[in-house]
């Protein structure tokens, strides 16, 4: 059998068919629309393009209806992906900066601080001073808006893609001292020096210890001409020696901070005090009157706030301390017992003494009220005190009178 030599040591028969001698790749069928969408989704996930994955179908339908070219379709998807990534990056930077609150320069009232140069603040918001490693010092009284300006400049730097760190002076000193005690001071100092913009808020509010002032000087000197620093303080620069504890140390810190510096002089009325002086919105006339009446009642004596109902003097009892049978309404007026309590006693008598009702089938209803004639027996079985309190008199249990009923009268009368 004759053989032919092909590509190295491969030997094939000369009379073999072409299908046996040449390896032909298999051609698979084109995937369906559903299979293609699944493959595209997996590829977009592998490429980490979540915006492509969430919007490609909507944008495809839009471009198909408008009849535009495929390049515009891809361009719009790419722009949407970039915008979403930039937004997530800004949110991540803001979260890493640890701002106490999200504040922007748009919400700052420049008219309330006339000494502050608005044009200078807007120029700083362009973040060109960060590229030149320049510093910013905001000086002003308490509640003037220094922290608001510092956070606004920090937010602007985050939108520019720069790393920002925010911390108060007291927290910074505490972290530095703890890191020194735990043998991790160098790592913390490298992290502080790595920020493009470091904001130190509320410096000079509390005097620093000698060790804390020295550690603060190390942070400032390490960031000198390597990064920008924003410091807010309520003291002028010539009084920083009182906080740092040494005139020499204060001079060394200010020498590095003020070499390339923008000073924001902020003088004006306290923002919180100004907010508290604003007139409150007027309530409706109806609710205003109700509040005034309630306020007047609160300041009045107890006797005026809770007036007692007027009571007529109780007549003297007959011999033996018993009263004549009374009309229920008259009895209620004399003794102070409410009509509701009398109605409960009547129902109690009807349920507690069925034997009496059984022996009086032909009794007619009393003409003076809805109560049966035996009910005035309660009046005869009660001793009415001058104060208006009704108490049981006689045996513990009379016909048609129970201990629970007597308790109700006593409570109602008191």
Description:
The structure is a single chain. This protein has 414 residues and is α/β, with parallel strands linked by helices. The protein folds into 3 domains: 39-91, no CATH class; 98-270, Rossmann fold (3-Layer(aba) Sandwich); 319-413, no CATH class. Helix content is 50%, strand content 11%. The chain has 20 helices and 9 strands. It has helices at residues 18-21, 33-46, 50-66, 70-97, 118-124, 128-131, 146-159, 169-181, 185-194, 210-223, 241-244, 247-257, 271-276, 285-299, 302-305, 328-335, 339-352, 354-359, 376-380, 403-413; strands at 3-6, 10-13, 135-140, 164-168, 197-203, 228-233, 261-266, 382-384, 390-392. Strands 4-5-6-3-7 form a 5-stranded parallel sheet. α4 (70-97) runs antiparallel to α7 and α8 (169-181) runs antiparallel to α9 (185-194). Residues 5-10 and 359-414 have low confidence and may be disordered.
Task: Give the key terms.
11% strand; two-stranded antiparallel ribbon; 5-stranded parallel beta sheet; Rossmann fold; alpha/beta; 20 helices
Q: CATH superfamily membership of the largest domain, which one?
A: P-loop containing nucleotide triphosphate hydrolases
How many domain regions?
3
The residue ranges in which pLDDT falls below 50 over 5 or more consecutive positions are 5-10, 359-414
The percentage of residues in β strands lies in 5-15%
Give me the number of helical elements. Answer: 20
CATH topology of the largest domain: Rossmann fold
What level of helicity do the residues show?
40-55%
Give the overall shape: extended
Number of strands: 9
């Amino acid at each position: 059998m004759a053989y032919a030599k092909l590509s190295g040591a491969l030997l094939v028969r000369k009379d073999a068919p072409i299908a046996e001698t040449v390896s032909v790749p298999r051609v698979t069928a084109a995937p369906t629309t559903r299979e293609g969408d699944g493959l595209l989704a997996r590829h977009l996930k592998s490429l980490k393009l979540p915006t492509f994955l969430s919007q490609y179908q909507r944008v495809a339908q839009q471009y198909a209806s408008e009849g535009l070219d495929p390049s515009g379709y891809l361009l719009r998807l790419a722009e949407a992906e970039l915008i979403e990534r930039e937004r997530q990056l800004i949110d991540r930077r803001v979260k890493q900066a640890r701002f106490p609150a999200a504040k922007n320069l748009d919400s700052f009232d420049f008219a309330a601080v006339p000494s502050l140069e608005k044009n200078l603040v807007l120029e700083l918001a362009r973040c060109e001073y960060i590229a030149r490693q320049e510093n910013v010092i905001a000086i002003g009284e308490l509640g003037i808006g220094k922290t608001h300006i510092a956070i606004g400049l920090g937010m602007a730097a985050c939108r520019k893609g720069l790393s920002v760190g925010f911390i108060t002076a007291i927290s910074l000193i505490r972290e530095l001292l703890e890191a020194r005690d735990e043998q991790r001071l160098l790592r913390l100092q490298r992290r502080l020096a790595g920020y493009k913009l470091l904001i130190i808020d509320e410096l000079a509010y509390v005097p620093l210890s000698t060790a804390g002032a020295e550690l603060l000087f190390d942070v400032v000197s390490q960031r000198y001409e390597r990064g920008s620093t924003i410091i807010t303080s309520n003291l002028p620069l010539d009084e920083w020696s009182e906080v740092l504890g040494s005139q020499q140390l204060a001079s060394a810190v200010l020498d590095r901070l003020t070499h390339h510096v923008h000073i924001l002089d902020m003088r004006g009325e306290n923002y919180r005090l100004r907010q508290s002086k604003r007139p409150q919105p007027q309530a409706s006339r109806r609710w205003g009157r109700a509040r005034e009446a309630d306020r007047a009642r609160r300041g009045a004596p107890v006797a005026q706030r809770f007036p007692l109902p007027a009571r007529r003097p109780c007549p003297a009892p007959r011999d033996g301390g018993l009263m004549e049978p009374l009309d229920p309404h008259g009895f209620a007026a004399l003794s102070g017992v409410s009509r509701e309590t009398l109605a409960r006693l009547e129902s109690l008598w009807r349920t507690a003494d069925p034997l009496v009702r059984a022996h009086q089938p032909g009794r007619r209803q009393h003409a003076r009220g809805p109560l049966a004639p035996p009910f005035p027996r309660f009046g005869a079985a009660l001793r009415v005190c001058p104060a208006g309190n009704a108490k049981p008199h006689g045996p513990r249990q009379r016909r048609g009178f129970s201990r629970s009923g007597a308790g109700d009268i006593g409570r109602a009368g008191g």
